[in-house]
Design goal:
The chain contains 11 helices and 6 strands. By secondary structure, the chain is α/β, with parallel strands linked by helices. Strand 5 and strand 6 (219-222) form a beta hairpin.
Amino acid sequence: MIILINQISNSDSHANHSVSIANYRQNLDFLLEWARLISSIQPDTFLSNSPDFMSPQNAMNNDKLQHTVAALNEKYHSLTIDERVRQLYSDFPLDRVMITSSFAATSAFLLHVFSRIVPDQKIFFIDTGYHFPETLEYKRRLTELFNLDVVDVRAEDWKHEFTEKDQTYKSDPDLCCSINKVEPLDALKKDYDVWVSGLMRWQSDHRSTLDIFEDRNDIIKFYPLIDVSRNERDAYIKDHDLPFHPLVAKGYSSIGCVHCTVPGDDRSGRWNNFPKTECGIHL
């Protein structure tokens, strides 16, 4: 494995052993799979660690989680947004709740709610390395405005550097998102029971199917704003005099990475010319 890494990292300086982009991608995929395998295997537990293996205990835990999610949805449906947030911390301890924010178009809504009610809650920001300068400035501004405790989450340097050299965002945006967003977040989720996100149903076809809570890959996802309409969102931001992302005024309704975002309504400006509307972290 070390030999293979060295071969890849030194490929530019050794013409006789140059590696094509196709082989580079193949080698990276192999390394990622090998790393996952090594990190998950313990003696005599290969089958129980396999994602396709469902032991009786795992099946029982899955059924219990489904019942928990159903009960939470019934309990929270009639609550206001503030009531939902307060109730969450009655049902779960603070240190088992994680919140992610992209500091995108209207992130101020969710962050304002939580900063008022649970000011000690950490906010995780996935730094893909490809954010607009305006996004980083918006992040700085909201962090100061709401006195947020923001923690940046990133891919390993060598993985991110591969996507830069390969320009993976042009040829394979799914792989780029996986490396720079999905995998760093997956490593974080194992330490929490509940993951809070500011998704709203009107934003995409996928999001229109979501409830307040859902079981997503063994973590409970909580969407306190899921049934908020676009007009209600805009009214909240106006009533509380909250700032929009600077690019909203330039026609950007949904804002992600520089290479994969153009002006457009809702999420139509994301991954232009690709049949893709989600980065993968919410799937």
